[in-house]
Specification:
With about 200 residues, the chain is mostly helical. It has a single domain, classed as Up-down Bundle (de novo design (two linked rop proteins)), CATH 1.20.1440. It contains eight helices and no strands. It starts with a helix and ends in a 12-residue tail after the last helix.
Length: about 200
């Protein structure tokens, strides 16, 4: 009789956990981790392209050194950050990581804009191939980030909705930080480049 009671209690507990969103938290947490891993893979792909891009651009004798330096420094900063799963649950660390990636995006954008002033560089097949790869990677980053944003949104809705918010409180499931896109327009806009001492 005691065995039957234990089985019934275990079944009731399982049903109550399922009904309060426990299993959904597990599923959505895994979904956000997988989406984040895809974002990181694409950020790494972009970082791996930078050394070849910089080496190709350095071949242009008069290329703007300051622009190259900014790209190199931004890449070093972006790749030096340790991105652990805990970063996903720490808004401050997540913001710092986003900022570093945004700085690299901006530096690369400037490099590509400046490179248009160098016809020999534009004619270089290796540079053109790297540029296409970089643009494709930026597109993949955008798609991966959108998937991550959607996954976080689903998770956070579950964490804040009743009655699953009770489950979140009991098990300590906090809402996850998402990408902030307040400065996205500024990051993706091409910078103003001045080659003429104030004249465009």
């Amino acid at each position: 009789m005691r065995t039957i009671v234990r089985w019934l209690l275990a079944l009731a507990a399982a049903l109550s956990l399922a009904g309060c969103g426990y299993n959904d938290f597990q599923r959505l947490d895994e979904q956000t981790r997988a989406a984040w891993a895809e974002v990181l893979n694409n950020y790494q792909r972009r970082a791996d392209l930078v050394p070849n891009l910089v080496a190709t651009v350095k071949g242009e004798a008069n290329f703007e050194q300051e622009t190259l330096t900014r790209v190199i420094e931004a890449r070093a900063k972006a790749t030096s950050m340790q991105v652990t799963p805990e970063v996903l649950n720490n808004p401050e660390q997540f913001q710092r990581f986003q900022q570093a990636q945004g700085e690299l995006s901006g530096a690369l954008s400037r490099l590509l804009v400046v490179s248009e002033q160098y016809p020999q560089l534009q004619a270089n097949q290796g540079f053109r191939d790297l540029r296409v790869q970089l643009e494709g990677t930026e597109n993949r980053i955008t798609v991966a980030r959108n998937r991550y944003i959607k996954a976080v949104q689903e998770y956070n809705v579950l964490a804040r909705s009743f009655p699953s918010n009770l489950t979140a409180m009991v098990f300590g499931y906090q809402p996850k930080p998402g990408f902030t896109v307040a400065n996205e327009g500024q990051i993706s806009a091409p910078p103003q480049v001045d080659f003429g001492g104030g004249k465009k």
